[in-house]
Amino acid sequence: MSQQNICPEWPEIRREEYRGVYVYAEHDGNSLKDVSLELIGKARQLAVDLDGAEVAAIIIGGTDAMARELVETGADRVIRIVGEGLETYNPVRYSMAIAQVLDKYRPEIVLIGGTKRGRELAAYIANTLKTGITADCTELEIDKASRDLIAIRPTFGGNVLAGIRCPQRRPQMASVRPGVFPKPSRDPTRRGEVISERVDVQDGRMRLVAVERKVERDVADLPPVEKADVVVVGGRGLGSADGFHLLVELARALNGTIGASLMAVRAGWAPHTRQVGQTGKTIRPRVYIGVGVSGAVQHIVGMLESKVIIAINTDRNAPIFRYVDYGVVGDYKEIIPRLIELVKAAPKPTPTEKQPV
Asked: What is the fold, at CATH topology level, of the domain defined by 15-198?
């Protein structure tokens, strides 16, 4: 079947003019987001299938230390964007700045972390560059014959994985949720180029007005779900928000953190920032403990890469038991207190010992 231009009003492109894999490196002013470093590692893998294409990172502002970390993680080039109006985050200005740089350097692939900010920027950038984007990918591959990016993501409620490509437009864009790919180790011996690009994003028509500031109340002062080695996740089977009190105590005893299923978040028992699953965070801890979690596919895709999976549920037919290393059928209100006692009574490892998985 011959390909036809599905958007005839968009100008034709010369695909051979686009080369390289670029990553938008997001930061909070103090440190890089882990997902940006994860994508640098994946970009290096994709570059191998693109005949050793350049891997570059685009960062707005940032510090010399951030640029150094990007190079040591795998970037051949770091492009630091500077310009008036970029001191604080503004989706319109940030996307305009990034689009200007991408239009100049013309990479064939652009990867963006699927954070709240990344998802917002990705849509603006794709629209500005008149290209397509595949959101919330779980895997990325290269068709070596065509140099097309095959962006794989769950669809039909997570029951099917779809491979999506963008053969007519460049750059090809994809967003990936945090935790999907492993974070590469740093190599202090790597060398790369760091350059600055000044952009003009001033537009008198733009107005950004803050109408409300809302802060979600967390269930505990514990690390984010994507940064802990042990994650205790509560589901609808807890019955109420009070069930999280026991889970928090267990998480503290294990030096871990708390997560929640979609249904627990919808019930208001935990904030969205702790949601694990297709529409939440993707995690890969050393130990995952699901308590009262049924195991819907949407949740499983967010935690299946955990090294050890444990589930506690009163329903012996719960779908989550298909994926566990250890399953316990019973009432968590009886099991969790006993488990906390055992954990607290266990001998603590010395600083030189590694805790077993």
From this structure: Rossmann fold (3.40.50)
